[in-house]
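Reading a protein record of the kind used here takes little practice once its layout is understood. An example of such a record is reproduced below.
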Amino acid sequence: MPQLNPNPWLSIMITSWLTFILIIQPKVLSFTPTNLPTNKTLTTIKINPWIWPWS
């Protein structure tokens, strides 16, 4: 059963995970977000009922 042979894919998987963890992830995490979340005050909206001309 060739899928049980870890020789071709195990090294590729370990290399890709190490690349992600050691190189790509720190670069992505070092970015600072441009739009920081701020606390917005809730505004109340006054709803005016619609007056239908035929009623």
About this structure: The chain has one helix and no strands.
